[in-house]
């Protein structure tokens, strides 16, 4: 299984290419993302650049998370675009690719995303909120070559990530 | 490898950070962690660097004194691996300025075993504000909240204690 890439790494800062969602290689990539997400404790989302592949593919699963409201279970999206975003809220987030820092980032608490599913290429529109919306924005950022560090709210809004009991 | 802890304080103007970091870079210093802010118009910066002696650092920063900046340099031991932190909380206190707010509030935090990891206080007009990031021993936050409420009532200020979890995505 591929390992999660950590910053600094060029692939994390490179906008991912749009993909052909029906390409068997992309279906395989989707499966690999899901497998690594499931194998990583506490992981609620993973984007292709995080495993070294510069492509617009990510998976998300926030099922059971205390800050989630609407949830769509475990899913993989290709070529996702945010077409509506509202109710901006601050929140502190971290990333498996930036293991030692967290930061305060404003994210929309309600979004509409258009994407296609891997395998079928079926277009989907996902409307969601709260924590699932934050996770989607974080992963879509990865696919665009952005980290949460590019969006921190201020010079003193970055923190050393601590190991909590 | 030893590290240096450097502070620079003085009247603010544009270009101080560039001057300080350039002076240190010229003598081979590696800046690692740093923080800088303005406190009532005073420039205030604290930084850790390595790769040079304290004498070299002092010599490099010496010329800044002509602009009214005071730099101090001292060698420090590198960070040792810390024990796991407690639970992350944010404390906010605000109200009319009065003597001893910071002392009273932070004493309560310390007595409860909490560790302050970040702190800002501001006085603007009659309003005093304190915001602190605190690591609280697991399971003791409710108790700390009650103790803070008691001291806040004595000081006639408002206090809030809220969890500040990070979500790892
Ligand atoms: Zn991430």
Description:
The complex is a heterodimer of chains A (165) and B (169). With 165 residues, chain A is α+β, with helices and mostly antiparallel strands. Chain A has one domain: Alpha-Beta Complex (Peptide Deformylase), CATH 3.90.45. Chain A is built from two helices and six strands, in the order αβββββαβ. Chain A has helices at 24-39, 130-143, and strands at 45-47, 57-60, 75-95, 98-116, 123-129, 158-160. Chain A is globular. Chain B has 169 residues and is an alpha+beta fold. Chain B has four helices and nine strands; from the N terminus they run βαββαββαββαββ. Chain B has helices at residues 16-26, 54-61, 101-111, 141-155, and strands spanning 3-11, 30-39, 42-50, 70-76, 87-96, 115-124, 127-136, 158-163, 167-168. In chain B, the strands form two sheets. In chain B, strands 2-3-1-4 form a four-stranded antiparallel sheet, with helices on one face. Chain B has a four-stranded antiparallel sheet with strand order 6-7-5-8, covered by helices on one side. In chain B, a hairpin with a 2-residue loop joins strand 6 and strand 7. In chain B, helix 3 runs antiparallel to helix 4. Strand 3 (75-95) of chain A pairs parallel with strand 9 (167-168) of chain B, so a sheet runs across the interface. Zinc ion binds at residues 95-97, 138, 142 of chain A. Zinc ion binds next to helix 2 of chain A.
Question: Outline of this structure?
Answer:
Chain A has 165 residues and is an alpha+beta fold.
Q: What is the 3D form of chain B?
A: globular
Assign an overall shape of chain A: globular
Strand content of chain A: 25-35%
Q: Briefly note the structural class of the backbone of chain B.
A: alpha+beta
Mean pLDDT of chain A: 95
Largest sheet of chain B: 4 strands, antiparallel
Report the biggest beta sheet of chain A as strand number plus sense, adding barrel if it closes.
6 strands, antiparallel
Helix content of chain B: 25-40%
Poorly predicted segments of chain B:
none
Main CATH class of the largest domain in chain B? Alpha Beta
Put simply, the count of helices of chain A is 2
CA-CA gap between termini of chain A: 29 Å
